[in-house]
Specification:
- Belongs to the enoyl-CoA hydratase/isomerase family.
- The protein is α/β, with parallel strands linked by helices and about 260 residues long.
- The chain folds into two domains: about 200 residues, 2-enoyl-CoA Hydratase, Chain A, domain 1 (Alpha-Beta Complex), CATH 3.90.226; about 45 residues.
- The chain contains ten helices and nine strands.
- It has a six-stranded mixed β-sheet with strand order 1-2-3-4-6-9, with helices on both faces.
- β1 and β2 form a beta hairpin.
- α3 packs across α4.
- The two termini are about 20 Å apart.
- The model has no long low-confidence stretch (mean pLDDT about 95).
Length: about 260
């Protein structure tokens, strides 16, 4: 589909999704949400995509909902319509967090409210040294309805998550790296390139193993559930040609050569 509020490209095995509303720090409206859902669903089901990179154009990653589009919106007057709107926001997190392809956020600037949660829903984050994350919701009389109070405790623990969510204060790049929320801090405006380097590192590993490993990382499952799921996943990998090639490459002292077109 043609996109008006985002840019979506597949480059060298990477699906790159950029929110394209730089004049308002990439705040989203309904159309943006629909396009994000479409692009991420496409990326997760496209055999030519091995990793997904999410970022924003301009100075911001995503400043959350476009407040100028809220007044007079019918879904703010009817609960079932509001639920449909919120589902679109939540489903962006759902696709990033649960989708089979690894996801990386290049946090190039402020990631606020739902924009913060889009970043947290990714498997890894690279942050610009001037960027920050903010759970904005309590500051404007809302709850983190799209996923933040579920995501953040899993990333930093319950006590720290409560501090960050209930104060609604900024988490700068240095603190994010200290907390393990960010893989690294990029300087000189090269955050997207650093994120691409990380994406390429994931892209170049055996794809079936990468995707099944992501699915196995689940803090809610019991060990017995994990071992059964691991057996099923490992059996698929044992019979995968990329596993065979990777092992042969180790034995022969060379880099693996997977049969891919990018």
């Amino acid at each position: 589909m043609p996109y008006n509020k985002i840019d979506y490209d597949i480059v060298d095995g990477r699906a790159e999704v950029f929110i394209d509303r730089p004049a308002i720090m990439n705040a989203f409206d309904e159309e943006t949400l629909l396009e994000l859902n479409e692009a991420l669903q496409d990326a997760m089901t496209d055999d030519d995509v091995y990793v997904v990179l999410l970022s924003g154009h301009g100075r911001g990653f995503c400043s959350g909902a476009d407040v100028t589009s809220m007044d007079g919106r019918e879904d703010r007057e009817k609960k079932h319509l509001y639920g449909s709107h919120l589902w679109l926001v939540q489903n962006v997190d759902r696709l990033l967090y649960f989708g089979q392809k690894p996801t990386i956020a290049a946090v190039n600037g402020p990631a606020v409210g739902a924009g913060c949660d889009f970043a947290l829903a990714c498997d890894m984050r690279v942050m610009d040294d001037a960027a920050f994350l903010r759970q904005q919701f309590v500051n404007i009389g809302l709850v983190p309805g799209d996923g933040g109070a579920w995501l953040l405790p899993r990333l930093v623990g319950e006590s720290k998550a409560k501090e960050l969510i209930l104060t609604g204060r900024d988490i700068d790049a240095d603190e994010a790296e200290d907390l393990g929320l960010s893989v690294e801090t990029a300087t000189d405006g090269d955050v997207v390139e650093r994120a691409r380097d990380l994406a390429n590192e994931l892209r170049d590993k055996p794809a079936l193993a990468m995707q099944n490993t992501k699915q196995l990382i689940d803090t809610n499952q019991s060990f017995e559930d994990y071992t059964q799921a691991a057996l099923e996943a490992q059996w698929k990998c044992v019979n995968d040609l990329e596993h065979t090639e990777a092992v042969d490459a180790v034995i022969e002292g060379r880099e693996p050569a997977f049969d891919r077109d990018y």
